[in-house]
Amino acid sequence: MESNRVCERYKWAVWMVIHHLKMKKEEDAAQISMTAIQAKRPRKNNNIVFHHDNARPHVEARAIESIEEKEWDLLPHPPYSPTEAPTDYHINRSLKNWMSNKVYDDLDELVDDVKA
């Protein structure tokens, strides 16, 4: 049945998932997303980047229009890239913890630290 179909949405805030939810196909993704963002980050109201995979409900015209109406930046998922799925970063908490509070002056310094 059409109304029972759900799609998953991931909302990212700079370095972390803001919210993951399942929603019915006919629901407005942008409105639900904005509610989730406001609940999690009350002061965040601009420079929102929406990252999703290429599942049909996520790339249909209505979903894209809804995101553009909110004036969010759309960060599309590569066409087929299982090594760079949006959840990969969420899964790799050890990397996130290791990188926390580190500041690098340039890319070479970062590369050297990772290789060490």
TrEMBL record:
Spans through the membrane: none
A GO MF term: nucleic acid binding
InterPro entries: RNaseH_sf (IPR036397), Transposase-MT_Hybrid (IPR052709)
Name of protein: Transposase
Originating organism: Acrobeloides nanus
Biological classification of the source: Eukaryota, Metazoa, Ecdysozoa, Nematoda, Chromadorea
